[in-house]
Structure formats: C-alpha cells, structure tokens
Amino acid sequence: MQFARLDGADLYRATLWRSNLTDATLVAADLSSTNLNGALLTRADLRDTNLRFSRLAAIEVSGAKFTGCSVYGSSIWNLKGTPGEQLNITITPTSEPTVTVDNLEIAQFIYLLLKNEKIRQVIDTITSKVVLILGRFTPERKEVLDAIRASLRTRDYVPIMFDFDKPSSRDLTETISTLAHMARFVIADITDARSLPQELQVIVPIS
Question: Given this model, what pLDDT does residue 73 score?
C-alpha cells in the first residue's frame, strides 16, 4: 500500500502487520485497535489519526508525521528511525482531561507515570535514594564496603555497588553512566588513582 491515500479511512481493528505504508497519507483515519507491528511508515502522514489501542511494535517511523494523534492504550515499542513530526500527541482517553506529549516513544510511559503510584515510587527511589558505589573491592576491603552500605541504609538510601575488578565493557560503562546521572550522589574508591577506570572518567572527566 505504498503511496496509499487513506485520509479519513475507517481501519478499526485492521491487520496491517508488516505492511508497506511508505509515503501513505492517513490523516484523521481511524486506526484504533489496529495491528501495525513491523509496518513501514516511512514519511507516512498520520496527523490527527486515532491510534488508540493499536499495536506499534518495531515500526519504521523515519520522517512520519504523528502530530495530533491519539495513542491512549497503544503498545509502542522499539520504534525505528525518528518521526518528522510528533507534536500534541494525546495520551489520555476521551473520558479524561486531555494530556499531550511531543514524543511518541514516551507517550505510554508518561501516562503510566501519571496513573500508577508504584511507578512514581520507583522513580522517586531512583532519583532521591539511590547511591552509586564504585571501586575495586578486594577481600580485605570488604569490611569497608559493608560498613558504607550499612550506614547508607540506616539513612534510608538504596546503595548500588559496581566492582571494577570485573572486565569493563561498553554496556557496563553506559549503565554506570546512566545510574550515576540519576543517583543522589556517587561514592568512588580512587585509592589506585593511576588505574582510574574508564567508567569513572565518563562520570567525572579528567583534565
């Protein structure tokens, strides 16, 4: 269906799995409860489209226009590419006050954040209570590590420890960097400063 002209079309509960909708126009179409998993939506125009309860996993969205869409209840995972337009995307049902976001990939997360108290508690824990501990903790320094963690726990912090005795990798570096920027603060053992690990250098650049 490349270059298809489907403006205003009623495609409720349609199966468009892995369909080629490149350069298609679906302005104000009803795609609610539609299976679009794996579809090619490159440069497709879906402005003001109803995507509520649709499945949008692993779709190609490069250059696609999603401005004004409604995505309440949609399953949005692993999008490929960057949309051309994604403004004023409605994440709430028609029965609730309208809430909009400007990013398709974070739409379902923002709604869950608004409605799910447990998720809000998790976010609060990460941003206000997590303390990242970095170092090379040999057996003789284990008592020091345990004392630090015990002290943090008595202060209602959540200690997370990374031991640099394990081999470094890109994934490990990215994980530590992400946690460090979300943590309340970082404790680093730099006793052996000459062998400062690359993960710590990512967090605190050395001049």
Answer: 94
